[in-house]
Amino acid sequence: MTIVRAKKNLGQHFLKDKNIAQKIVESLSASQIANVLEVGPGMGVLTQFLLEKSYQTYVIEIDTESVEYLQSHFSQLQDRIISGDFLRLNLQKYFSGPFAVIGNFPYNISSQIFFKVLENREQIPEVVGMIQKEVAERIAAPPGSKTYGIMSVLLQAFYHIEYLFTVSEHVFIPPPKVKSAVVRLTRNDRQHLDCDEKLFFQVVKMAFNQRRKTMRNSLKAMITDEALKHSDLLALRPEQLSVSDFELLTRLIREQPKNI
Q1: How far apart are CA 150 and CA 218, in angstroms?
Q2: Which of 4, 3, 1, 50 is nearest to 23 (CA)?
Q3: Using an 8 Å Cβ cutoff, are 183 and 24 in contact?
Q4: Residue 229: its pLDDT value, please?
Q5: Contacts from 62-67 at CB under 8 Å and sequence distance 24+?
Q6: Beta 159-167 vs 100-104: how paired, if at all?
Q7: For domain 197-255, which architecture applies?
Q8: What is residue 245's three-state secondary structure?
Q9: How far apart are CA 33 and CA 85, in angstroms?
Q10: What integer pLDDT is reported at residue 14 of this predicted model?
Q11: Dihedral (CA of 137, 140, 144, 147) sign
C-alpha cells in the first residue's frame, strides 16, 4: 500500500490507493503533447506514473519539504522541479509551446488554478485535475442545471469539460468530510469570443451574482431601456443561457452602452 500526503487544506489526510493515482494519470489523453506540468505533486503519488509516459514531466511545488523529497526520490526529473507558486508562475519562461496540466489540486485554490489556465488557454490544450466533488459538478454542469454558474460558463467558453469519476473519501487516511472528483478539460474550437471578452466576464458575473432574477433585472444597470425591449433572452434566468447566449447579450450591451 502506498501512502502519500494529500493537500494541506484537507487537513492531515493521506491518499492510500495508488490505483486512483494511476487512474488520474491515465485520464490524461494528450498523447501529442510533449510536455506536462503537474501542479502540487507533494510526495509524487501522481509523478511516479507520469514519469512512465513518453512526455516530459515538469512539477511545481510550493512546499519546500516536498521539493526536497522530490529532488531526492525522483532523479529522472533532473532540472524539471520548479519550486514556487503555480498561480504566480510565468509559464512562458518554462514552456514555449503547448503543455498539459495535471494535479491533485488544493481545494482552496482550485478556482484560481482554472482562471490561470484560462489566461493561458492558447498554451494549455488539456487539464486533468482532482478537485472537490461539488466544484467538479459545478464546472461540468450544462445550461439549465441548478449548479450551472460563473465557472461553468467561463470555462465552457473555451473548454469541453468531462466529469470523469468520483473519488471516495475512504481512499484517504483519515477520510475527509467531502468527496473528490476528477475532471478533464479539453480545449474546444472557439479561438475567440464573438464579443468583448472583458465585458463578457462582467456580464456573466453580474448575472449569476443575482441568479434568482431574470437577466432583464440583473443587467438593468448595464443596458439601455431601449435594448431591454429587444431580446427574449432577457426574460430568462442566467442558468438557462448558453455561452453563445451570453455572447449575444454582451454584444447587445456593447452596441448600446450605458454608464456602468
Answers
A1: 14
A2: 50
A3: no
A4: 67
A5: 62/86, 63/8, 66/5, 66/41, 66/42
A6: unpaired
A7: Orthogonal Bundle (1.10)
A8: helix
A9: 23
A10: 54
A11: positive
| Dist CA 169 CA 176 (whole Å) | 6
- For CATH 3.40.50.150, the residue range(s) in the chain are 4-187
Q: CB of 131 within 8 A of CB of 151?
A: no
From first to last of its 260 residues, what are the pLDDT tens digits of the chain?
444 444 444 344 556 789 999 999 999 986 678 899 999 898 899 999 999 999 999 999 999 999 999 999 999 998 999 999 999 999 999 999 999 999 988 888 999 999 999 999 999 999 999 999 999 999 999 999 999 999 999 999 999 999 999 999 888 767 878 899 999 999 999 999 999 999 999 999 999 998 889 998 998 888 876 666 667 889 999 999 999 999 999 998 888 644 44
Q: Which fold has domain 4-187?
A: Rossmann fold (3.40.50)
The C-alpha atoms of residue 103 and residue 49 are separated, in whole angstroms, by: 12
For the CA atoms of 156, 188, 111, 233, the dihedral, rounded to the nearest 10 degrees, stands at: -20
Residues carrying CATH 1.10.8.100, the chain:
197-255
In one-letter notation, the amino acid at residue 166 is T
Which residues is 173 bridged to in the sheet? 14
pLDDT at 228: 67
Neighbours of 18 (CB within 10 A): 17
pLDDT at 260: 40
Residue 67 has which C-alpha cell? 521539493
CB 155 within 8 A of CB 116: no
CA distances in angstroms from 6 to 18, 44, 133, 164, listed in the order given: 12, 11, 15, 20
Alpha-carbon Rg for the chain, nearest whole angstrom, is: 20
Give 175's DSSP letter: P
Q: Which residue has the cell 451570453?
A: 246
